[in-house]
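Quick one: examine the sequence and fold tokens given here and explain what the tokens say about the fold. Here goes:
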Amino acid sequence: MKTASPIKPPRLRRGDLIGIVSPSSPVAEAQRIERGVRYLESLGYRVIVGEHVGSTFGYLAGTDEERAADLHAMFANKNVRAIVCVRGGYGTTRLLSLIDYRLIARNPKILVGFSDVTALQLALWRKCRLVTFHGPMAAVEMANTMHPYTEEMFWRCITSSKALGELHLPEQPIVLSTASRAATGRLLGGNLSLVVSLLGTSYAPVFDRAVLFLEEIAEEPYRVDRMLTHLRNASAFNDAVAMLFGDFTDCVPSDTSKPSFRIDDVLQEVAREFGKPALARVPFGHVPRKLTLPIGIRVRIDTRRPSIALLESAVA
């Protein structure tokens, strides 16, 4: 059966309307949302904030119905051209059964976020084939002084309808596996915990011919090991053609008096078992300096240089 082609959202232009949603956890300081809005407005964009952004419902930014309603409203609004998530945390997996995927497929738009937003992004890929963006968020990077590298790569990715080609990397990635040297596939992945949480559901992506990219924060090495083993046991390693590891921020043992592997040891062992091209220390994840990675776009990985090249545009 022929696989449906990706749906690329229209590129963003100066003066376009950007929507702000909060599909996961609430923001402790409302000023962070305001600073993110001011940042976007300072660049010449108009901004609309979702009705329930700023709400709090336990550890969620509003009820599931409220957060889903904000997402639907932004996709249904013909004037909104991009949707930027406020922050991650927890909550997007709770929305997946409430989402109107037909509405979203009929109204493709740029959707930006990372961390907990991974679950939403991968579900939109599985259900709609919508290209979304693993990138900076309104109350995180946009509320601070964004790193120049992060800023440049983000705006290039969502405003240019040309393929970006080989990406400029501030530091050379670490080659974990040179098996077959190079591979081409579609970028799929995000936060490791969220990728694993989708396995066995109808929202999990099919990893056939995927370049699997993964990052994590505040998980001990043995827990990272367990999640990667789960991915391997679920055949994701068999199906994927290459692997990119981003930053595994604060992934250290909680008790240094007990024996443990380092996170680098875990990734090295996984790459050895994977037996296909694998790079580590690629700049993405919970770090200030990072790439924006378009989920669903064809990419080429070459361990000889090493290099990463986007082979097609992420926006139309």
Notes: The radius of gyration is 19 Å. The mean pLDDT is 97. The longest helix spans residues 30-42.
